Amino acid sequence: MARPQNSREAADALRTAVDRTVQATVGQASASRERAQDLVEEVSQVAGKLRDTLDDLRVASREDVREVEERLSDIEKRLTALEKPATKAASKPAVKKSKAAPRKSGK
Fold first, then answer.
1. Buried b (16+ CB within 10 A) or exposed e, 6-33
2. CA 56, chain centre distance (Å)
3. Per-residue pLDDT averaged across 43-56, rounded?
4. Among candidates 13, 11, 18, which has minimal Cα distance to 2?
5. In 3D, which of 2, 31, 30 has the Cα closest to residue 16?
6. What are the residue ranges spanned by the domains of the chain?
7. What would the pLDDT profile of 68-94 be if each residue is shown by its tens digit?
8. pTM surpassing 0.90?
9. Which of 37, 64, 96, 105 could, after both became Cys, cross-link 60 (CB 3.0–4.6 A)?
10. Residues 10/4, Cβ–Cβ less than 8 Å
């Protein structure tokens, strides 16, 4: 670049150099912002998948085990109640019905 002859040319040259620098920086900043936004979205998606996976792999707490034990106890009681009538019916001897001799009609 040639050396400016007067202050007006020097100011114009400086303005042009600053303009080029700003334009180059704005373009890079825009690309950097888009890339940063893409990275944030990607990290967010991975975090969601990780959270779901950890929920699936979570170890049962003492409270979870206690609830399952209570439900199992309730089912056991209901099963016992259902089996009692079947046990009583099986222990009773079957009552045979006597067949009456067929009646002859007297016509």
1. eeeeeeeeeeeeeeeeeeeeeeeeeeee
2. 8
3. 87
4. 13
5. 2
6. 10-87
7. 999 999 999 999 999 887 666 666 665
8. no
9. 64
10. yes
